[in-house]
């Protein structure tokens, strides 16, 4: 093909030169005939160029190129084929994009693409229904301006997306959303949002059920313990055979009461995300009174409970909740360490925030149990904790209280060498002195 148009071109030029020479011989004006001949050829070439330009300008889909001879015909055809190929490739690409868009539009989960600064780039229809994003006004807006929940702002800023976040929807308080962010490419964010209202409602029903049952059991139990106490106070009128069962019934009634109290406290902690108060809490007096309670709990088991607190430390939150968390740790240290051993309660502050730690030199915990210790009713050894009167809810309460105060619990322990339970509170939870 290439050879063909090359041959045609050479032939045409030779023909033109030959014709010019012939006319030159006849007229005796070689130079002029050559100039006229070449000018005619140039004119023809410019005309072809003009046709090409006009065709490209008015080109509608599939309109064939103008007829051309030789090299120009070849140029027209090549451009036409290139354009057809490009069109087909674009068509295929568009079909893929359409399919992806159709399938993401059909998804009930929201997909949102954010740039590295957290500005909206693209989202599907579900994102409009779940988060109230508006197309196209919200394009380029910062996601934290559209989802204004403080928990989301913290979660987004922290850039630790290993766990999903659950929030009420910004457009409907009753809709519960689960948000999961993944980083990709150049620190861009892919945000997936699921409607978990139904699961949340079921979870809420379970919590309400436990709270209601605990509440309802309280009154009959108070009556039973009341009568048991009256009987215990009048032992002289009781058949001696019944003394031991009576004692055991009293012990178990106290255990049940502790259990109900812990269940109700947990239900209360789970009902909201934040502490019931946001007051400055001095740690020194709080931990001193917890230390005294721990000594009282130890009684004649003679534990050495020491306290090392930097003076003036203060956290923001609820005193009752923090007291409950720290005393659970201190009481566990006493309960699970041998008579006369030492327990140390420490509190200090550094650049990361405030830390409260309870260390004992007791029986310790095997490493495989540590990740599960904060689960409700998880016990390392059932017989061990029933003998200490534990409810199995203590560490679950600690975990919840810390979560509400933005803190974290760290546990390190080795069997037979004691345990260290540390509560780390970030700088935001610290109350600065005025
Ligand atoms: P419990 O009311 O049974 O003490 P917790 O939730 O407070 O429940 O603790 C869960 C389990 O963790 C306990 O059953 C106990 O086996 C173990 N544990 C907690 N604290 C300590 C500790 N300081 N030393 C050894 N084991 C501990």
TrEMBL record:
Principal location class = membrane
Query: Which catalytic reaction applies to this protein?
Result: ATP + protein L-histidine = ADP + protein N-phospho-L-histidine
Assigned EC number = 2.7.13.3
Q: Which GO terms describe its biological process?
A: cellular response to phosphate starvation; phosphate ion transport; regulation of DNA-templated transcription
- What is the enzyme's class at the highest EC level? transferase
What the entry lists under SUPFAM superfamilies is as follows: ATPase domain of HSP90 chaperone/DNA topoisomerase II/histidine kinase (SSF55874), Homodimeric domain of signal transducing histidine kinase (SSF47384), PYP-like sensor domain (PAS domain) (SSF55785)
Every PAS domain range: 89-168
Q: What is this protein called?
A: Phosphate regulon sensor protein PhoR
Provenance organism: Pseudomonas fluvialis
């Amino acid at each position: 093909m290439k050879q063909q148009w090359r041959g045609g071109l050479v032939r045409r030029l030779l023909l033109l030169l030959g014709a010019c020479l012939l006319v030159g011989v006849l007229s005796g004006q070689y130079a002029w005939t050559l100039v006229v001949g070449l000018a005619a050829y140039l004119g023809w070439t410019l005309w072809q160029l003009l046709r090409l330009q006009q065709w490209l300008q008015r080109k509608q889909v599939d309109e064939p190129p103008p007829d051309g001879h030789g090299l120009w015909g070849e140029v027209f055809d090549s451009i036409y084929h290139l354009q057809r190929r490009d069109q087909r490739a674009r068509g295929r690409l568009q079909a893929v994009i359409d399919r992806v868009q159709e399938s993401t539009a059909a998804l009930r989960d929201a997909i949102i693409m954010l740039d590295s600064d957290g500005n909206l780039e693209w989202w599907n229809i579900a994102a409009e229904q779940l988060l109230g994003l508006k197309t196209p006004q919200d394009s380029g807006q910062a996601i934290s301006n559209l989802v204004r929940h403080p928990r989301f702002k913290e979660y987004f800023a922290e850039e630790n997306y290993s766990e999903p976040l659950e929030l009420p929807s910004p457009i409907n308080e009753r809709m519960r959303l689960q948000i999961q962010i993944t980083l990709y490419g150049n620190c861009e964010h892919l945000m997936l949002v699921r409607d978990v209202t139904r699961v949340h409602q079921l979870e809420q029903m379970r919590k309400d059920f436990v709270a209601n049952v605990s509440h309802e059991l309280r009154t009959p139990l108070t009556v039973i313990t009341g009568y048991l106490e009256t009987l215990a106070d009048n032992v002289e009128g009781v058949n001696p055979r019944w003394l031991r069962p009576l004692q055991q019934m009293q012990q178990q009634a106290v255990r049940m009461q502790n259990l109900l109290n812990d269940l109700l406290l947990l239900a209360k902690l789970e009902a909201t995300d934040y502490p019931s108060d946001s007051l400055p809490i001095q740690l020194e007096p709080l931990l001193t009174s917890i230390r005294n309670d721990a000594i009282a709990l130890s009684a004649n088991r003679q534990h050495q409970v020491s306290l090392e607190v930097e003076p003036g430390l203060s956290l923001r939150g609820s005193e009752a909740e923090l007291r409950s968390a720290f005393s659970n740790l201190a009481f566990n240290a006493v309960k699970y360490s041998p008579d006369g051993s030492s327990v140390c309660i420490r509190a200090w502050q550094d650049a990361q925030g405030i830390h409260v730690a309870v260390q004992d030199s007791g029986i310790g915990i095997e490493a495989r149990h540590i990740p599960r210790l904060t689960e409700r009713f998880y016990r390392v050894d059932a017989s061990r904790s029933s003998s200490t009167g534990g409810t199995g809810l203590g560490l679950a309460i600690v975990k919840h209280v810390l979560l509400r105060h933005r803190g974290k619990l760290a546990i390190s322990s080795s069997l037979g060498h004691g345990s260290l339970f540390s509560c780390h509170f970030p700088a935001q939870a610290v109350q600065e002195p005025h």
